[in-house]
Please model this.
Amino acid sequence: MNLTIEELREALINAELAEMFNQAYKQGVEDGREIEKSKFENSLPSNLKKEHVAQIFQCELPTVEKIIRMDGFPKCHALKARYPRDKVFEWREKNVMYMNSRLGIYVSEEESLRLLRA
Model:
């Protein structure tokens, strides 16, 4: 099976194009996730209720009670039982491991994708 240089060049270009399309697809999926995440985050009020916190952490209200009592969980000092949206998202990102060790309920999106692929 002897291939000409032209055939080899064409096969190499096809392989490179396939890899480029695969990377573009993955980037498009990731961009779409980021847009949806941003839409969800921005659709929430600036001062969250417990129901909103339950949506963010995808858990039930009894678990929210545990979460809001965790060390450093942000609270709104002007309003009772309200939580500042942006600080809650920051806290969530910084405390994924802490929440997993304390409650065993929360896994980051990247971790859940890794677990699904395994």
Notes: DSSP finds six helices and two strands in the chain.
